[in-house]
Design goal:
The structure holds two protein chains of two kinds. Chain A is mainly α. In chain A, about 75% of the residues lie in helices and about 0% in strands. Chain A has 17 helices and two strands. The chains are: A mainly alpha, B mainly alpha.
């Protein structure tokens, strides 16, 4: 639009505009970093407001004091002590980590052969099959969580089928509102997070290496153990990181399908902001959640280059 | 594992995983046409009743309009900001790795903690929570790393000799960009914008803590789930899933066309 506007104006100003543009370009060429800086400013500014300041605020808030009349600025470790003194909170943290580890482990066991199938067992329909894995990746986890309600409930599809087949006479309650339903649903929701990175690492694997291994006399199992598996490790680690973080940070799934036994860390964290309004303690819980995630990243980065896992190409 | 038995085992296994991935969604779609007041079986016959009820529900249209507006604005802003950042990464500069890590950091910070942290920030700044203020910031921040990675990947595959040719023929940088670079990467950029729109359209947890009294479709589903569960929800979910599927497939096709 700016160009059209310039064209409509008299020729003199157009040529002035053109030379100004040339000057600007010359300037940018001389100082290439100015261009880089200009291009990066909006993103950095946004991330400052989206990530840096909010997390700084969590840290500050975690030292404040919550009173009947609201939050009072303070510097005390009381909120942290409150977490350790009440065994309920550390236990909940451990249980949430255990649930997330269970989800991650089962997802890995399910996903590896599946990713192997996508990378080695498909040819003609590969693109379609891949898109079918990717689509749930991009669609609402709220809806995918909700979709288990009519299946697992007391009057749900599973119970209905069991009763129709006369396997049970009364509806079974074990399918919903417990840790089982939470684990099952989290696996269902986050499976693509595991499949995609493993698939990508298997797909990049050079087939000639496998041929070389078998030419040198390795049987398929040995080839898999010594060649395929080590080379797909970056994908495995990437998938573990993605699924663990998603499952550990879950809020919707345990809230909707967990009942009282399936409650997770995220639910208690959210309650500090929507139920009990203890913002300082909520900040402590949020920081603990972030610390667990960063700890996992540190461990994971010892096994593989994490930047590559998330698609970076620096 | 190249012999026939292993291959057919893998095929059956693959099919089973697809069944697991898609059964709940298919059930949801089927049940949205079920002529029964409960959200589950038994099957009471085919009906459009729940879609008609949805069409009569004024608040759904308000939420839909909000979700569309938010998604559109998020897609445009995020694509511009993320695209610029991706272009910056074509040249080498000091601190590149640090900036890259910061751009990717939102991928690994749980959305729930971002949601409550943003709540604190906006509260301290005295900004009243709202759709196109606080929630827009949350959504642009959420989609930015995705857009950045998608456009970077596209630029990485870009043949720079085409630009060099244009410059050798006398085009300046801006002309080269609009006449050569942009037309070639446009499908990739439109595809990324579609993904950003889809992500925003489906986003829930960051929205919940930043939206105040406004509603988006996911927020409305959430509050409906708390009060009454009716097959109307299945109908709403079916429409959202259908829209997401269409957008993602369109995005994939756009990005895949130039591979």
């Amino acid at each position: 639009m700016a160009i059209e506007g310039a064209a409509a104006r008299p020729a003199v100003s157009a040529s002035v505009g053109r030379s100004a543009r040339r000057d600007l370009l010359a300037l940018l060429n001389r100082w290439g970093w100015v261009k880089v800086l200009l291009f990066l400013v909006p993103a950095c500014l946004l991330l400052t407001f989206y990530l840096v300041i909010p997390i700084a605020m969590l840290i500050v808030m975690s030292f404040y004091r919550s009173t009947l009349f609201g939050v009072v600025p303070d510097f005390s470790w009381n909120n942290y002590l409150h977490f350790w003194r009440n065994p309920m909170f550390p236990n909940l943290l451990l249980r949430s980590i255990r649930l997330a580890v269970t989800v991650t482990a089962i997802s890995l066991l399910v996903s590896y052969p599946f990713a192997y199938f996508l990378a080695r067992g498909t040819r003609r329909f590969r693109t379609t099959l891949l898109i079918l894995v990717m689509v749930p990746f991009w669609t609402s986890y709220l809806i995918r969580t909700m979709s288990w309600l009519p299946i697992l409930g007391i009057k749900g599809v599973v119970n209905y089928s069991l009763m129709t087949l006369q396997i049970v006479s009364n509806p079974v309650e074990v399918f919903l509102f417990n840790q089982f339903s939470v684990v099952l649903t989290l696996i269902h929701i986050y499976l693509p997070y595991m499949v995609v990175p493993i698939y990508l690492s298997l797909d990049r694997l050079d087939g000639r290496l496998l041929e070389a291994a078998s030419d040198l006399g390795a049987n398929p199992l040995r080839t898999f153990w010594h060649v395929t598996l080590p080379l797909s490790l970056p994908g495995v680690v990437g998938g573990i990181v993605m699924v663990f973080i998603a499952a550990f940070g879950a809020y919707v799934t345990p809230k909707l399908l967990g009942g009282s036994s399936g409650i997770m860390f995220g639910n208690v964290l959210a309650d500090q902001y929507s139920g009990t309004f203890n913002w300082p303690f909520g900040a402590v819980l949020a920081l603990i959640m972030i610390a667990v995630v960063l700890g996992l990243l540190v461990v994971a980065s010892r096994f593989t280059r994490l930047d590559a896992v998330f698609g970076a190409r620096a | 594992m190249t012999d026939g038995r292993a291959r057919s085992f893998l095929r059956i296994y693959g099919a089973a995983v697809y069944v697991f991935l898609y059964t709940p969604i298919v059930m949801l779609i089927v049940l949205s046409f079920n002529d029964s007041n409960s959200i589950t079986l038994p099957w009471g016959g085919f009906t459009w009743r729940w879609y008609r009820a949805l069409a009569d529900n004024q608040s759904v249209f308000v939420s839909l309009k909000n979700s569309l507006t938010l998604g559109l604005m998020t897609a445009v802003i995020s694509t511009v900001i993320g695209g610029l950042a991706a272009f910056a990464f074509r040249s080498r500069f000091r601190g590149q790795v640090a900036v890259m890590r910061m751009l990717l950091l939102p991928f690994v910070i749980p959305g729930l903690t971002i949601g409550v942290a943003l709540l604190l920030l906006f509260h301290a700044l005295g900004v009243r929570p709202g759709l196109l203020t606080t929630t827009l910031v949350a959504h642009v921040g959420f989609t930015l790393p995705y857009v950045f990675v998608l456009i970077s990947t596209r630029l990485h595959r870009f043949d720079e000799s085409l630009e060099e040719a244009a410059m050798d023929l006398g085009a300046d940088e801006i002309t080269t960009f609009w006449q050569v670079t942009f037309p070639l990467i446009r499908p990739g950029i439109v595809g990324s914008a579609l993904f950003a729109f889809t992500l925003s359209f489906d986003e829930f947890i960051r929205t919940l803590f930043t939206i105040g009294n406004d509603n988006t479709l996911p927020i409305q589903i959430w509050s409906t789930l708390g009060s009454m569960v009716s097959p109307e929800l299945n109908a709403m979910a079916t429409l959202i899933v259908a829209a997401s599927f269409a957008l993602v497939i369109a995005g994939e096709l756009l990005r895949g066309r130039e591979r």
